[in-house]
Amino acid sequence: MSSPDFYQFLGIPRRLALDPKELETRFYALSRKLHPDLFARKSAAEQAKALDDSALLNDAFRTLRDPIKRAEYVLKAEGFDIGEQSTKDVPAELLEEVFELNMALEELRMGDDDAREQLQISRSTFLNMRDGLDAETQAKFAEWDASDEKSVLSEIRALLNRRKYVTNLIEKANVPDRV
Amino acid sequence: MFQIEFDSQEAAVGIDLGTTNSLVAYMNLAKPEVIPGEDDDKLVPSVVSLAADGSLIVGNAARQELIDHPERSIYSVKRLMGRGIEDVREELNLFPFRIAEGSESVIRVVLGERTFTPSEVSAFILRQLKKNAEAALGTPVTKAVITVPAYFNDAQRQATRDAGRLAGLDVLRLVNEPTAAALAYGLDKRKEGTIAVYDLGGGTFDISILKLHEGIFEVLATNGDTHLGGDDIDNRLMRIAIEDIRSEWGDDISHSGEAVQTLRREVIRAKESLSFLPTEVLRFGWNGKAYQREITRELFESLITDIVDRTLGPCRDCMKDAGVTPEQIDEVVMVGGSTRIPLVRSAVEVLFRARPHTEINPDEVVALGAAVQAGILSGTVEDQLLLDVTPLSLGIEMYGGVVSKIIHRNSTIPASAGETFTTGIDGQTNVLIHVVQGERELAKDNRSLARFDLKGIDPMPAGFARIEVRFLIDANGILQVTARDARTGREQMVEVKPSYGLTDEQVEAMIEASIDHAEADFNAAQVASARVEAEGILSATDKARRNPAWEQLSDSDRAAVSSAVNRLMVALNSDDHEVIRQHMDALNEATHSLAELMMNTAVSSALKGTHV
Predict the structure, then answer these.
(1) Structural domain containing residue A100
(2) Which residues, 6 or more positions from B448, have their beta carbon under 8 angstroms from its beta carbon?
(3) Are B150 and B332 in contact (CB under 8 A)?
(4) Could you tell me whether strands B143-148 and B170-176 are parallel, antiparallel, or unpaired per DSSP bridges?
(5) Do residues A169 and A93 share a domain?
(6) In a domain, B2, yes or no
(7) Out of A35, A56, A58, whose CB is closest to B385?
(8) Smallest Cα–Cα separation from B407: which of B390, B422, B388?
(9) Which residue among A65, A97, A116 closes a domain?
(10) CA of B218: which chain A residue's CA is closest?
(11) pLDDT for res B606
């Protein structure tokens, strides 16, 4: 489905580092023009168009307001495959932490409640790691906006893959209190 | 031009089609106003009764019929909207619905000698409201905005829209009740801010959090418990009274429809007066016997504490989904008769750290908001716009029964999403797409919305076809699905026909279960995807065994492959994805030399080809 480009549709420059306020302003302004409520007394064809347009507007806003989805959108448009994460993007320094986490999960499964402490530690380690990755990604966003270099996009893709991996670990470490 | 001028003369009304009461309102110049019925009552009880002469009685008059002729009367029909017989079994224990034989696909309720679908019964209520509006306005009324609980699913929304059509109304829009309430409050209110709408109705509980921005009402998130309301509070008092009466009189009155209805009416009266009196006496007379009991507010509150507490979880989840803290909520709006209960108000005040708004009558606020929305749609109200969300995620069932979510819950509507599908078998000419609604990872744990078949795909090798599917949720929260074969351009419009709606309990159970069973779900999804991958490897191996390279392999290599295949086939039954993956790895290992041989053969034949 060749749906129109989200940036073009919203009428904003194709940047990765977007000002959320500016994006929101565009969204509200376009909503006031395109929403089906404004076409309730118009012809069926106009109503159908309003439905399509406002669905596109909402999809575009939903995608671009979220930095991760926004980056994935641009990567995809630039021909990058964002489907499966590649294991080579898994940071080697993470292996020990992953091992610790798996051990703690195993201990917990065996009924050792003391393992919860390790899970807490693992979780905050991964959360910090993700914050670091987010900061790095932000910097790369600005770099791409300034340079338009394809190589920066592949670095961003690698960062996103690592982020995905770390996010999975955070979820894994987030064991509910009930056993 | 004249056409439009003429059209705008005709009033579009706003209707709150409630579980307990229904109301109709309209825009009187710039102000929404509720239209009373012939009996001057603004609330039309959602009760329908079939008179002996075959005419239909609706509202206050039907309430008396409910006591005199319970077998010819029905109330709380909203609980049956858009649902299948399997969905309402539990309700049947609590409510005196009489379901006709043969109600498997569409429920039919019995009133006297006739049967009706829930949409038809709702249409009788709507028709009464339409009549009331026409009498008051002196013009025909054919256009309406009707409200639904925010948590209503596709089937329930469709059933509501059907009821409107049956009542001769052009349903301009279905609006979520809490959102409508926000619209009613939004008039002349603050320009910016975040508001929470707490809506505890007769049978459902909704919570919505909205962001206000210069007349735009943007819903950030919605949550709820679609099986929680004033009815549950009544049932607590009923249980006490029935127990007392059993021990005092030695009679069980719960089998008499008439006695139960009379007692229910008294219980509701007592409940309502306990909202402003510290104590009230419950009185019930039956067959010359009298029962009475004093109920203090303290006792009443202790009876309902857990019910009130059950509303708080969805409120917290909703704040989380909206990405706001209690401190960021500027205003709280109260909707629904049950929010008059002081305990409810104080619980809400504590949770949101803001004094809730109660200036607008909580019974009327939804209808007033619906009238505002009707005004927006007919162009009489300008500069206000509602951006609502879908309460439930939509997805497609993938191989292995895993759901691929296409539109996530709390997405602003209209919303759409596209997905490309292909065939899995050589020469396959149709693709069956199963659409589900819910938050769980496996299709079988969600509610099936519809299945549709894309037919007439040209036969071609597996994986060559490209079928593009587009999901679109319109501004009513109703789904449209279209599919297109990207190669032929053939398009197929699909009307989503739900065989049964999702039950309210299921919606909740699904969301709750998706939290409770997140781990189990995750494992099941991993097992399913491991199985799919394993099957792929097995079929590739099978194909390779027919390759000439297979014959060149040593006997021991061949034996190793065969035994790895057998072990993987056994492992497919395992519920542990790691076991499946281990055997996949083993098979990959065993086929290593076979793959190399095939590669070499392919390379050498390709080289030969270039030389020719």
Answers:
(1) 87-173
(2) B434, B435, B436, B498, B499
(3) no
(4) parallel
(5) yes
(6) no
(7) A35
(8) B390
(9) A65
(10) A28
(11) 45
Q: What is the ipTM, given to two decimal places? A: 0.87
B106-110, B449-453, B603-607: least confidently modelled range: B603-607
The reply to whether B78 belongs to the active site is: yes
Inter-chain residue contact A41 with B413, CB threshold 8 Å: no
> How many domains does one find in chain A?
2
Q: For position A83, what pLDDT does the model report?
A: 62
pLDDT cut 70: percent of chain B above it: 89
Residues B191 and B259 in one domain: no
The torsion angles phi and psi of B524, rounded to 5 degrees, stand at -60, -40
Q: What is the amino acid identity at position B221? A: A
- Please report the pLDDT score of residue A170 as a whole number: 84
Domain total in chain B: 4
Å between B567 CA and nearest CA of chain A: 26
B194 contacts B324 by C-beta, under 8 angstroms: yes
Contact with chain B for residue A41, Cβ under 8 A: yes
Query: Same domain for A117 and A61?
Result: no
Residue B570 has pLDDT above 60, yes or no: yes
Question: CB contact, 8 Å: A6 with chain B?
Answer: no
| Vertex A166 angle, CA A161 and A171, to 5° | 125
β-pair type (B73-75, B47-50): antiparallel
Question: Would an 8 Å CB–CB cutoff place B4 in contact with chain A?
Answer: yes
Same domain, yes or no, for A93 and A50? no
Q: Pick from B412, B491, B514 the residue to mutate for testing the A interface (most A CBs within 10 Å).
A: B412
Please indicate whether residue B177 is annotated as part of the active site: yes
B346 lies in the same domain as B412 = no
Contact state of B173 with A28 under an 8 Å Cβ cutoff: no
Q: Are residues A104 and A155 in the same domain?
A: yes
Instruction: Check whether B307 has a pLDDT greater than 90.
Output: yes
The CATH number of whichever domain residue A43 belongs to comes to 1.10.287.110
Q: Do residue B409 and residue B328 come from a single domain?
A: no
Domain residues for B418? 394-516
Chain B contact present for A61, CB below 8 A = yes
The C-alpha of B416 sits at a distance from chain A's nearest C-alpha, in angstroms, of 6
Q: Which residues of A touch B467 (CB under 8 A)?
A: none
**Which of A112-116, B16-20, B199-203, B560-564 has the weakest average pLDDT?**
A112-116
Is B53 part of the annotated catalytic residue set?
Answer: no
B16 is catalytic: yes
Kindly report whether the peptide bond that precedes residue B149 is cis, defined as omega within 30 degrees of 0: no
pLDDT at B461 over 70: yes
Q: Which residue of B has its CA nearest to A173?
A: B519
d(CA B327, CA B318): 14
Scan residues 354-413 of B and list those with Cβ closer than 8 Å to A: 376-379, 385-387, 411-413
Contacts of B379 in chain A (CB under 8 A): 40-41
Distance CA B345, CA B120 (A): 36
